[in-house]
Amino acid sequence: MSATRAAKKPLMRGSNASGMRQFNERTVLQAIRHHGAIPKADLARLTQLSTQTVGLIVERLMDEGLLLKGERVRGKIGQPSVPLSLDPNGAFGLGMQVGRRSLEVLIADFAGQMRWHWNTRYEYPDPAIVLPKMAEGLAAAQAAWGTQWDRVVGVGLTAPLSMHQWADVMGESAGPAIARWEHIDLLSELRRRTPLPVVFAIDTTGACVAELF
Fold it and tell me: What span, in angstroms and rounded, lies between the C-alpha atoms of 128 and 100?
């Protein structure tokens, strides 16, 4: 396949088959996320969904507060186009990173921008310190976000694997505390502390995904 033909391929392709509503909504949102403000006609071409399907999806996403309409663009052939963009305040995600020396919590908006940040440091990751700090960070996030907290849709948790093997790195005095991680399920611990959905990624994987994003 030539480079020109490959460049013309859609970033994501939706389906006009029934039962694909959620997938098609994600396809439209991902297209806008990658390409920026874009009118419905261009969205249809990009995703290879019908104009009618894109119109219905856009209306649903507008009703849910996830999209914004821009100013009409005039001066081209045909009807003026209305670019659509993500509403940064449409939804928020909470991120938590457990590290060797610190715990970080942040809130990112729907456009991927960090809007709030909290962190605490410790000499080494003693579970007796880290687990209560996780709850403290969640409480701080909820207090800071106030009435917008109901638009936080989930938590992303990152941490290195095999934390119980860090004793060699953290020092002999930290050994007994570090060893306790072998019997602690960090994901389950966080899920017990929040009703929000929680997903886990190894810290290096999370960093790579963030860099691609």
Answer: 14
